[in-house]
């Protein structure tokens, strides 16, 4: 049986211009057989979710280094639910303080990869959640 | 089939799910296509090809904007190559079109070639059908044309634009067989760079000299600086002019008819082969036949004839 290709949207929300991490992840995922759509910088949660909808992605990875994580993640989760896209797996990355992590995970984000996370951990996460 | 009904009403989530199902070769695929088909044939299908770095995605972004300002809705299938090593892909065209991401009149779908030689997979054509059926006025297909074998986009599109870059070392590159053949219009992007005027003149000369595909349509050569949104209205005018020309001369109807028949024959071949092999699968005589072929005791021509001997044609 043909193995389904996994499609991933890598998004950079808000005013944050630090996209090296996002690009490293995008590149790494491509090297491991995933199809990666990169949104580019300065995306609103609306743009992110609309793109994910049109691209019918399995996963959304959101990179935030500007401190707006407490707004962006819950807002994206809210929009996904509103659109009937509950089956999309969402993970995040960036500079997110320890104490902000639990509420973000509680909103439905499956994992947050902070600076220093080995890429293998991201791959293991992907394999576990989508294949 | 809930998704089909919803997609026909223009529901983007439903359309997106259908495209994904078709892309993954879902067993319901044929049924989906059969149900969508009567609602297709209305959209203006535009192809855009050219070498990497020519500015195609930026151009598409501006062209979307231009069509939107003229009250048209736009679907885009943006094709990028899959890695032959990892099987993965970076689909990096959408990144240039994100200002349209919240416009309900625009639908962008990035697609990987998934090993399909020639640049376009069956799924690309099927995505175009879905977008057409959903009601988009214009459906654009953007592909990387690294040169001479991008004929597939011509097959799918009503009008094909080839994007060229000035100063690519050799103006002759543009004139090699294939590129000149497939363009209904040529766009010299980044026209503020040195060599732009020369390239335009070279292309115009070559195009005037050759016998074109459709009677007396001489492909225009246009200059754009997409990043500055310059020359876009003229490009869209030229695309619409070509559409009008092919419609009024009947050339469009002929091309579409030829394409439908060609595709139908291709499908018959595929389905026939599938059914024949499925019927013989597991049969001892078939297994022995394969051994004979690999041992070179039986030639493939005789083997094929023998396999087909049992097939009775319906009269």
- Portion in helices of chain B: 40-55%
Strand content of chain B: 5-15%
Q: Give the strand tally of chain B.
A: 8
Shape of chain B: globular
In DSSP terms (H or I, runs of 4 or more residues), the helix count of chain B works out at: 13
**Strand order of the main beta sheet of chain B, please?**
4-2-5-1-6-7-8
Element order of chain B: H for helix, E for strand: HHHEHEEEHEHEHHEHEHHHH
Determine the CATH topology of chain A.
Answer: Rossmann fold
Order of helices and strands of chain A: EHEHEHEHEH
CATH architecture of the largest domain in chain B: 3-Layer(aba) Sandwich
| SSE class of chain B | alpha/beta
**Order of strands side by side in the largest beta sheet of chain A?**
2-1-3-4-5
Beta-strand segment tally of chain A:
5
Q: pLDDT below 50 for ≥5 consecutive residues: which ranges of chain A? A: none
The structural domain count of chain A equals 1
Low-confidence blocks of residues of chain B: none
Q: What Rg of chain A do the Cα atoms give? A: 13 Å
- Separation of the first and last Cα atoms of chain A: 15 Å
Dominant shape of chain A: globular
């Amino acid at each position: 049986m043909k193995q389904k290709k996994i499609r991933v949207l890598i998004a950079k929300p808000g005013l944050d211009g630090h996209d090296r991490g996002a690009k490293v992840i995008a590149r790494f995922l491509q090297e491991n057989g995933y199809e990666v759509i990169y949104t580019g910088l300065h995306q609103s949660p609306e743009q992110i979710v609309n793109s994910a909808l049109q691209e019918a992605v399995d996963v959304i990875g959101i990179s935030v280094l500007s401190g707006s994580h407490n707004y962006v993640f819950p807002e994206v989760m809210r929009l996904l639910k509103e659109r009937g896209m509950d089956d999309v797996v969402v993970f995040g990355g960036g500079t997110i303080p320890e104490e902000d992590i639990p509420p973000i995970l509680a909103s439905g984000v499956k994992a947050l990869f902070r600076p220093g996370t080995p890429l293998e951990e991201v791959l293991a996460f992907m394999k576990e959640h989508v294949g | 089939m809930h998704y089909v009904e919803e997609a026909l009403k223009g529901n983007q989530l439903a359309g997106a799910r259908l495209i994904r199902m078709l892309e993954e070769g879902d067993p319901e695929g044929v049924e989906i296509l059969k149900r969508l088909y009567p609602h297709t044939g209305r959209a203006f299908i535009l192809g855009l090809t050219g070498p990497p770095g020519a500015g195609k995605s930026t151009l598409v972004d501006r062209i979307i904007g231009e069509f939107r300002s003229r009250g048209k809705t736009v679907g885009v299938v943006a094709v990028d190559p899959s890695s032959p090593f990892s099987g993965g892909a970076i689909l990096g065209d959408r990144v240039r079109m994100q200002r349209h991401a919240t416009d309900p009149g625009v639908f962008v779908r990035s697609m990987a070639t998934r090993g399909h030689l020639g640049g376009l997979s069956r799924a690309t054509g099927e995505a175009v059908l879905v977008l057409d059926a959903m009601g988009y006025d214009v459906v654009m297909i953007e592909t990387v044309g690294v040169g001479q074998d991008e004929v597939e986009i011509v097959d799918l599109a009503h009008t094909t634009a080839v994007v060229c870059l000035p100063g690519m070392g050799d103006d002759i590159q543009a004139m090699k067989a294939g590129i000149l053949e497939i363009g209904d219009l040529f766009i010299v992007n980044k026209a503020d760079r040195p060599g732009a005027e020369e390239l335009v003149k070279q292309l115009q000369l070559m195009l005037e000299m050759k016998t074109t595909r459709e009677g007396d349509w001489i492909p225009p050569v246009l200059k754009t600086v997409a990043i500055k949104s310059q020359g876009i209205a003229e490009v869209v005018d030229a695309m619409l002019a070509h559409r009008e020309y092919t419609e009024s001369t009947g050339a469009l109807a002929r091309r579409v008819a030829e394409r439908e028949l060609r595709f139908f024959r291709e499908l018959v071949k595929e389905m026939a082969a599938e059914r024949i092999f499925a019927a013989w699968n597991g049969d001892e005589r078939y297994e022995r036949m394969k051994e004979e072929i690999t041992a070179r005791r039986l030639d493939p021509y005789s083997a094929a004839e023998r396999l087909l001997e049992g097939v009775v044609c319906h009269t």
